[in-house]
Design goal:
The complex is a heterodimer of chains A (about 270) and B (about 230).
Chain A: E1 6-16, E2 22-32, E3 36-40, H1 47-55, E4 62-67, E5 70-71, E6 83-86, H2 98-108, H3 113-126, H4 142-154, E7 160-164, H5 172-187, E8 191-195, H6 199-205, E9 208-213, E10 216-222, H7 226-232, H8 242-251, H9 260-263
Parallel strand pairs in A: 3-8, 3-9, 6-7, 7-8
Antiparallel strand pairs in A: 1-2, 1-4, 4-5, 9-10
Chain B: H1 8-23, H2 32-44, H3 52-62, H4 64-68, H5 77-82, H6 88-117, H7 124-151, H8 161-187, H9 189-217, H10 219-223
Helix pairs in contact in B: 1-6, 2-3, 2-6, 3-6, 3-7, 6-7, 6-9, 7-8, 7-9, 8-9
Classes of the chains: A alpha/beta (about 270), B mainly alpha (about 230).
Chain lengths: ~270, ~230
């Protein structure tokens, strides 16, 4: 049994796809209650595979996942009442109006009809979509769709929110809205797990960070201590920013590369096309 | 989290509503128009027997994806439901109820249109037999459709080869399922009614739970449907 403070616990997760690609190779990490946990890694590192397994969309070959101390099985539905998911693909019914969709998800999550409408309106207002509640989601921009996905994930006030690349393809204004929502959720006591490529956002937003590479966890720790931890564990990556630390961890010793035709002394071509 | 309802009825009604609204928004369903015309022309053929035969076939073909592919009315529908705490029994009840409502609505509309052009208008006895015959095929077809939805799901529905195959299978099944109902509906409407009720009980008691079990067992394969 996990301790009471651990909300999500992943142990020795292994996943090999039918193509032979080993997405997860013994991944283990845990997330404590009430924190914003940043899960970072390169494309193909195994972040989305992990999230899809937690969401019940895929199944691991080996290993266990515990949510709120209970082991999650493929047929388990109950734990989803306490978890909200924002996945990296369009899972919503995009033909529906945003308000109707949020109401639909709210009722599916077990809310009363009136309460689902009320929360849908409040969320749309908070995410600056107040005037768009009757518009079909299909007509929305990427950023607006991400906001609707986020609203759907939190309408039932879950204790754990898992977000896969919520800031991908999102403009600065929408990203600010999403980040402020996550801050509100954390302040309300929810635990947030977020994957992202935007490392400076992760560094500022998250209280704890896990770095995944080739299906394994390289390093996990509080954001303000992760540099020290990297040095202590002799990972040999002196770095001042999370980005430098991350690049050092996943790519090894830096190698200076050049593009020969740009590096030689021949002049730049300034001829006009006419 | 103290605002929980727990009312299954609300979920079922909402899903029926959602399913019906989606049906009238999907351009693919305009296939009803040519099918209605075909039904009307076939009803003019003197050897067709009852005009309700082509009407029923038109309805079953129009609703083929709604019967045989209930988990993917939109490409991401199943995945969207998987990440929610979905009660699959309620989902199936809602989807089967929605397709039954649509079937009855289309049967009525296409029948009225076809009857307008038919050389001989059906009398009350023939109309009752037509409705009974239609329902006696629809309910077993729906139960078989639940099974087919798990065995041969299609993420995209349109006019591809797999959709044509689905339509062909439906035609064969309608032919086979019509045999007992034709005999009963023409000779003993009361027995036909009993047959329909028995089919409905079997659908509710066996088809729904069996499909829920299959979805639970084969969820990962369904999520990987192309």
């Amino acid at each position: 049994m996990s301790d009471q403070m651990t909300v999500l616990e992943v142990r020795d997760l292994v996943k090999t796809y039918s193509t032979g690609v080993r997405a997860l190779d013994g991944l283990s990490f845990s997330v404590r209650r009430g924190i914003i946990f940043g899960f970072i890694g390169l494309n193909g590192a195994g972040k989305s595979s992990t999230i899809r397994i937690i969401a019940g969309l895929s199944r691991q070959d080996e290993g266990t996942i515990r949510v709120f101390g209970e082991e999650v099985t493929p047929r388990d539905e109950e734990y989803k009442r306490r978890v909200g998911f924002v996945l990296d693909e369009p899972l919503y019914f995009d033909w529906m109006a945003a308000g109707s969709y949020l109401h639909f998800v709210g009722v599916m999550e077990g809310l009363q009809d009136d309460e689902a409408w009320k929360r849908a309106d409040e969320l749309l207002d908070f995410l600056d979509l107040g005037g768009k509640g009757d518009d079909p989601i299909a007509t929305f921009s990427t950023g607006m769709k991400k906001k609707v996905s986020l609203a759907a994930a939190i309408i039932h006030k879950p204790a754990l929110i898992v977000l896969d690349e919520p800031l991908e393809g999102v403009d600065a204004l929408a990203a600010a809205g999403i980040k402020s929502t996550l801050a509100v959720l954390a302040a309300a006591g929810s635990t947030v797990v977020i994957t992202s490529h935007v490392l400076d956002t992760i560094e500022r937003l998250c209280s704890e960070i896990g770095i995944i590479h080739a299906g394994k966890l390289l390093l996990q720790g509080p954001t303000d201590q992760i540099h020290t931890m990297a040095v202590e564990r002799s990972l040999g990556v002196p770095a001042t920013t999370l980005e430098e630390l991350f690049v050092g961890l996943v790519s090894g010793p830096s190698i200076t590369k050049t593009i020969p035709f740009l590096s030689n002394d021949s002049p730049l071509d300034h001829r006009s096309s006419g | 989290m103290g605002d929980r309802d727990g009312s299954g009825t609300a979920t079922v009604l909402l899903m029926i509503n959602t399913d019906l609204r989606l049906f009238f928004r999907q351009p693919r369903n305009l296939v009803i128009l040519p099918l209605t015309l075909c039904s009307t022309f076939l009803a003019l053929w003197p050897y067709i027997g009852s005009m309700f035969a082509p009407v029923s076939v038109a309805v079953f073909l129009a609703l083929e994806p709604r019967t045989n592919n209930i988990l993917f009315h939109t490409p991401h529908e199943f995945d969207a439901l998987v990440v929610l705490p979905t009660d699959w029994k309620r989902v199936l009840l809602a989807k089967n109820s929605a397709v039954t409502l649509l079937a009855l609505l289309l049967f009525l509309v296409i029948s009225v249109f076809t009857a307008y052009f038919a050389p001989v208008r059906p009398d009350a006895t023939e109309s009752i037999a037509g409705v009974l015959c239609f329902l006696s095929v629809h309910i077993p077809l729906m139960a078989i459709g639940n099974l087919r939805s798990v065995q041969s799901p299609r993420r995209q529905v349109g006019f591809a080869l797999s959709d044509s195959a689905g339509a062909l299978v439906t035609l064969v099944l309608v032919g086979l399922l019509s045999i007992p109902s034709l005999v009963l509906a023409l000779h003993s409407p009361l027995l036909c009614l009993v047959y329909i009720l028995a089919a409905a009980v079997l659908w509710f008691r066996f088809s729904i739970p069996d499909t829920v079990r299959r979805i639970s067992l084969e969820r990962m394969r369904l999520c990987q449907t192309r």
